[in-house]
Records
---
Amino acid sequence: MNMLNKVFIAGGAGFIGSHFVDRLLTQPGVTGVTVYDNLSSGQLAYLSHHQSSSKLNVIEGDISDKEHLQRAMEQHHTVIHLASNPDIAKALTEPSIDFDQGTLLTHNIMEAMRITGASKILYASGSGIYGDVGMHEITEDHGPLLPISTYGASKLAGEALISAYCYMFDLKGLVFRFANVVGPRQTHGVGFDFIAKLKSNPNELTILGDGRQSKSYIYVSDVINAVLWANEKVQESFAAFNVATDDYITVTEIAKIAIDKVVGDSNKVKLDYAGGSRGWKGDIPVVRLNTEKIKRSGWRCQYSSSQAIAKSIDEMLNQDFSVFEHHKTNG
Ligand SMILES: NC(=O)c1ccc[n+]([C@@H]2O[C@H](COP(=O)([O-])OP(=O)(O)OC[C@H]3O[C@@H](n4cnc5c(N)ncnc54)[C@H](O)[C@@H]3O)[C@@H](O)[C@H]2O)c1
């Protein structure tokens, strides 16, 4: 069995990171959890229910500060790396963001691991590494890999750095190409966006693209299960896994679920389509991930895409509304 021991979570105050903290603090074999986060999109409030836990150490820091990162990483065995710019469209106005807040951060993480002796990394990659391959169902060995966003390019560069460090410096790395992840404490995403828009105008909902974009939406606990399951079962020094549901849902179907839950009567809301086949430049309208590889290790997804969307919208509606207000002011 591959033990986690003392775990360092880069980006642990964010959406997915805070769910890792919840799980790891109750996981046998975990002796301590350190969250390292600059709170750019994460929030201490996502961890406040663990305030009294002696196993959790929260460090506010930026991964671009190499010395501080290295000091914080001392004495850790496993690194879960989740820190990156979460907003794919942001590169349209800030073209360097995915290098500075993506590729470079992963390089700093790998260097800190090499120097401190942390031996295993579990990395949040994404389906964006594959580029736009239409209806083709993609397996992990698909090629050529031609991302169409700097976000996808940065995730691919991160995977490449991890692979290289694993071979050159005898580290172990598992990379996970997640579908769209949903659940409570989401800081972005289509369901989150629709709730924010409907709260501010319950009469009209603008949908980016033509609404026919069709992807897998996976519930956050299924993602945590996949990563921790693979960590335990997979022996290779480097491996990549797609992590997705077996089904897909369109953006218009998600809008209907959101309207039903936020407004109640879908006839009252005018749907306004911005047009074009994709939500924004760099968006991949159709994503089909084959998940046979991780299933062969024994992992199974609990929720379908529509169940995951419905559950996450219910849960987001119960979370502090100031999160959505914050989102609005940040575009
Ligand atoms: N949510 C999804 O649908 C999804 C899908 C595929 C991949 N991913 C990847 O999973 C990871 C986590 O995503 P998330 O949805 O939880 O996003 P998130 O924005 O909620 O979490 C990212 C965390 O990293 C922190 N961070 C960012 N830059 C940092 C820096 N320079 N130094 C220290 N901390 C920094 C943020 O404050 C935040 O807490 C990301 O890398 C994301 O690209 C997410």
---
Amino acid sequence: MRLIIEARLVDGDSDTVEEGDGVLAVIERPDCSLAELGLTLAEGRSLLAKVQAELISKQVQWWLPSQTCCQKCGAALSHKDSRSTVLRTVYGKVTVKSPRLWSCACQETAQTPQRVVHPLSRALIRRITPELVYLEAKWAAHLPYRHAAAMLKEVLPLDKGISSSGIWDRILDLGNQLDADIERDIAQLPGCVADDQVRESSHVASVSVDSAWLRNCDFRTDASCHVNIVAGRATFKDGPPKLYAYVHKEVTSAAARLDQFLSRNGVAIDERVTVISDEGSKLARGRILDWFHIAMKFRAAQRSVFGSNVIDSMERESVEDEINHAKWLVWHGKGSKALERIKALDSRLLSREGYEFKTLWWNLNNVSSYLRSNARTLVNCGARHRKGLPISSSIAESAVNHVVSYRMAKKRQMRWTDEGAHCLAQVRVAVLNGEFSPRRISELKTAARSYGKSNGPVAEGWRQPADRAKCATMQ
Ligand SMILES: [Zn+2]
């Protein structure tokens, strides 16, 4: 059996069928068995590539005659020569003939002599379809760049049309565009409102923010430096949760980022939202200190009692109890009383020889300085817990896992630059929030162009991508 697939072009205005000269594919199944059932992957890819090439060349042929006349006077433009233009699409690279024309005599002046017009290049500035950009970015948000390129090559006819370095460029470009879009939103956010006008949000259940550290591959900075990435998650009373993320060094204000994220998700500027975070002082909007991080610090102090040889075994229980009491005072919102208790314990132990060199001393001081610097964000966790209100950013831990760990994990030996991690985080969050599509990519370009026109090129937020050679290990 032989299946022949041919291309036939039907003119849009009439029913005339133009007989295509090309057979697109001949699929042969010589023996009558079901061993090779249906199209194979290779046959499917080759067929798609040929259909794409055929369709694009016909579309370009159809479109070109409308471009060969002067837009002002309608006179035919004279042909100079032809070049070829390569377009990258989801179904492979397509090379099309692109004629070059001489500009019309009606547009010539003493200052602007006759010039060459290149209609196809002007219409297809980027020479890559938004769908391919979408697929590359979406899969790079889930997989290392190399694996994303290999996977797309496997299922689509993209053998020469895709590379991991190309995908990385796309992520940097898109990440910068998404970032610039957020910055444009921030610039348009209304100012703060007076405290007495603030009301509790009826829309958001809770917001929690946490951070994680990634290995740095930027050799211009200290090799021991890490990339600090922040991820947050908002749960809503009437809808799925949403995520946001950024690299600390890449943004000017953490509070502005949170405000923009909330406002994009329908929270008005005069609405109060509870933000659970381990660094309350940096965030606005009714923030409270995360119980999870407080409990972890107390736990570290309690554990170091065991290993401390300045406390004998008889006394260990009472020291542990003292730390435990301080923890429950914090749970009930009595931060200053807890601080007094820790201070008293610390002064009692200071009389012991060598105590100030022990882990216990360090951990107790860590707890008290943490409570002191975040005193204003301590709340009565017990009362909140009884009312069923959130007290812990463990959902933010899952946001960090979701946004950061699964894709940029340290276990995978990945190294990042601040900019690379920031750009990927923007794309990944957009993908995970279900806000990423070929249409969104086109909208971003249009928005950047129109904003750039009215505010100058600098306002587009575009930055020079980092030196690729120096980031060879970046995934
Ligand atoms: Zn003209």
